[in-house]
């Protein structure tokens, strides 16, 4: 069983994984099993949390290390690399800058392949841990929620998958972004085709009071033609204690981290701050995934 | 017990390791034991398969990491480095650009040293996994085989050790290469001194039908004065389904990988393709080695 | 319990760790536990010996890897990084170029933080393994010893902590250095305030015969305005068999390694050479620390 994207997973598949994550604890379930880590681009947290997850289950990892020092440098194809490495491991975690690489890889090997991010494509375990964090912190079912997603919605791969997954469960989604960073046309089309209720606004003030969840994303300086423009946008979409004054007491504030200026440090002390917990949730969610596929 | 080269191992030593490799499975044999990985130059597969091997046996590794960030940068001698690291591990795997480095290292430490490649020198676990792959896939004994070794035979460290090891078992070896990439004089002399039957040809066509094993090697672009010359040679020594038309059905095709153009992808689908299996055999062979020396 | 420096540890705390180190052996005490390694600057030995230590106790590590490829590059604060990583590990080992970073980090996380070197600050497990090596090799109690500390005493973080720790136990310390590399004013003040007996000399000849321990340190070429000056100093403070001619038979010679020219290779063969053993002692001492805090 491969984990390539959440789009192709059924609601039941997803809920089964989230349920498993909420009960899973340290064990010897994967004792003697080896997980291959193939990160064709760096992603420290994702790598570390997969590493921690398999070790919590008594298993271990073998790590390809950085691409600079690997056979990829000698002109080897992805297909060859994964066919070699499958001999060293019982499952492969693949991070690749090229969209579609994990699916391609999965066609060449017999061991399970887990997509740990493929360029502008998917990052299913991130989506799962986002859903998990929402679910663990709200009383309502996912379908009854109003989720605000704010920031860079154009380039933010994370939020596209999350929006589609939330849509699958019937949640109402409001996108909050400057016009230049709106959700791209193809994602909007996909959401509409899925019959999803969503709206788009430019400022959060009017809706913050009705949100169950506010998901802020990183706004990357390098997307802007000049620094002034960046600073203006970053300032307007920064979450501060003031932003949250009209929020409900139980609003769940999330962020995929690392943050730069998107959330003011003062917010960390509030009950809304769930982004560190969200990062930590990578471990039980990936434990559940590994326990299921390995 | 150190593993420095296969040249100094007896036939019985080698066969004992190959026999062990063919029966070894996951166990707790090395539980609590730590293998030190010292790669003074990168070699992803060798490192990963040693890593997988020790973990399959319940042991673990400590890895020096890249030389850039190590004490070597501060001017430390190899002798000092290994004398420090032996305190952290029960055996050392050493990859070094300088020929003879592993033997030198072994004189300074009490723990076993395994040579994982020393420049133009040896790479005994590669030779062992090559022999293992041959042995697992032919019905005849090694002494009755006709093995073709093709490609860059001048710089290919792998094939020199393999040729000498095959010679030790009495196999007949035919070298196939362009004149500019012939087996060097000193290797030929060594083979002659060992009383080995070998011949050299420039094209494979005449002999492919009589081969039990064809071992293709990587032809490195950087060995050629100009790209045109490289492309001409690479084209002539490329193994395709056509090359194999007159081959016996049970011809075993091997390659140390990574390949670039030396074997056409279409060959992967044939029964001749044993190069991925060969790479995978690094794990049981290294398990057998570790189980023996640690 | 955090391990930030030895200054704030009582004599009893220290002795308890040293006693534990002298009896600790491989076990499953940390089975299922994960140690997070956060090296914001490289330190191969310290990293490897922590890695070996936790694995000897049946635990495992997750490693942030190099800073170049981590979220730090994206502008993340240290506080955020450690708050994320604490979700992956049961304790954190932190190496950081900035003095005070480990203490800062410890204020943001609930798991124990172990300082593995913070710039010009402290490196408590190094100090502990130095003390351990002294203690294992002398018959007298620490308070009765005469310890010479020689070389670069201005920039050598290691020796400042060691001198203060020895002082705590009442040892007599003699510093041996050129005027340009004397112990800095603030360390001298601290020693005086602690009521410590110490003196400073420029040459070792007059005192070598009375020493129980001689601790040589690395003299770094880059501290000198020109190479000639470096060579002159390095030559005068180099320990050779001649230096040790008037030493007592049981003089314990130590060095934090890596050495360049500070100790002549011929000294390695003498009974005085304890620097490799000292490096190896990093493992039991760190095992004792981990066993205590995790």
TrEMBL record, chains A, B, C:
Query: Where along this sequence does the record place binding of L-aspartate?
Result: 74, 157, 218
The question of whether Transferase is a record keyword is answered with yes
Provide the Aspartate/ornithine carbamoyltransferase carbamoyl-P binding domain boundaries: 2-136
Q: Which residues bind carbamoyl phosphate?
A: 45-46, 95, 123, 126, 257-258
- InterPro entries in the record: Asp/Orn_carbamoyltranf_P-bd (IPR006132), Asp/Orn_carbamoylTrfase (IPR006130), Asp/Orn_carbamoylTrfase_sf (IPR036901), Asp_carbamoyltransf (IPR002082), Asp_carbamoyltransf_Asp/Orn-bd (IPR006131)
Task: List the pathway annotation.
Answer: Pyrimidine metabolism; UMP biosynthesis via de novo pathway; (S)-dihydroorotate from bicarbonate: step 2/3
Task: Report the EC number(s), separated by commas if there are several.
Answer: 2.1.3.2
Stretches assigned to the Aspartate/ornithine carbamoyltransferase Asp/Orn-binding domain: 144-292
Identify one Gene Ontology CC term for this UniProt entry: cytosol
Enzyme kind, highest EC tier: transferase
Tell me which Gene3D superfamilies the record gives.
Aspartate/ornithine carbamoyltransferase
Ordered alphabetically, the record's keywords are: Pyrimidine biosynthesis, Transferase
* Swiss-Prot/TrEMBL catalytic activity: carbamoyl phosphate + L-aspartate = N-carbamoyl-L-aspartate + phosphate + H(+)
What GO MF annotations does this protein's record show? Answer: amino acid binding; aspartate carbamoyltransferase activity
The biological process GO terms on file are: 'de novo' pyrimidine nucleobase biosynthetic process; 'de novo' UMP biosynthetic process; amino acid metabolic process
Question: Is Transferase found in the keyword set?
Answer: yes
**NCBIfam families referenced in this protein's UniProt entry, alphabetically:** asp_carb_tr (TIGR00670), PRK00856.1 (NF002032)
Family stated for the protein in its record = Belongs to the aspartate/ornithine carbamoyltransferase superfamily. ATCase family.
Briefly state the protein's biological role.
Answer: Catalyzes the condensation of carbamoyl phosphate and aspartate to form carbamoyl aspartate and inorganic phosphate, the committed step in the de novo pyrimidine nucleotide biosynthesis pathway.
Oligomeric state and interaction partners are given as: Heterooligomer of catalytic and regulatory chains.
Recorded hits in HAMAP family, A to Z, give: Asp_carb_tr (MF_00001)
The protein in question is named Aspartate carbamoyltransferase
Protein's organism: Halorutilus salinus
């Amino acid at each position: 069983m491969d984990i390539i994207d959440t789009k192709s997973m059924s609601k039941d598949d997803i809920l089964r994984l989230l349920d498993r994550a909420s009960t899973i604890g340290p064990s010897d379930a994967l004792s003697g099993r080896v997980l291959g880590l193939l990160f064709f681009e760096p992603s420290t947290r994702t790598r570390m949390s997969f590493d921690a997850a398999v070790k919590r289950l008594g298993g271990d990892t073998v790590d390809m290390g950085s691409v600079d020092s690997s056979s990829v440098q000698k002109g080897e194809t992805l297909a060859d690399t994964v066919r070699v490495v499958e001999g060293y491991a019982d499952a492969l975690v693949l991070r690749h800058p090229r969209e579609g690489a994990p699916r391609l890889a999965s066609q060449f090997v017999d061991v399970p392949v887990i997509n740990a991010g493929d360029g502008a494509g998917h990052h299913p375990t991130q989506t799962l841990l986002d859903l998990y964090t929402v679910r663990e912190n709200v009383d309502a079912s996912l379908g009854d929620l109003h989720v605000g997603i704010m920031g860079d919605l154009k380039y933010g791969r994370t939020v596209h998958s999350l929006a589609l997954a939330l849509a699958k469960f019937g949640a109402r989604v409001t996108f909050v972004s400057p016009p230049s960073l709106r959700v791209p046309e193809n994602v909007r089309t996909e959401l509409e085709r899925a019959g999803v209720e969503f709206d788009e606004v430019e400022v959060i003030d009017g809706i913050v009071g009705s949100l169950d969840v506010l998901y802020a994303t990183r706004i990357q300086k390098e997307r802007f033609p000049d620094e002034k423009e960046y600073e203006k946008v970053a300032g307007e979409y920064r979450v501060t204690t003031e932003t949250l004054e009209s929020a409900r007491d139980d609003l769940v504030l999330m962020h995929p981290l690392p943050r730069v200026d998107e959330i003011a440090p003062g917010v960390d002390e509030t009950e809304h701050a769930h982004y560190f917990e969200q990062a930590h949730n990578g471990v039980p969610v990936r434990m559940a995934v590994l326990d299921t596929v390995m």
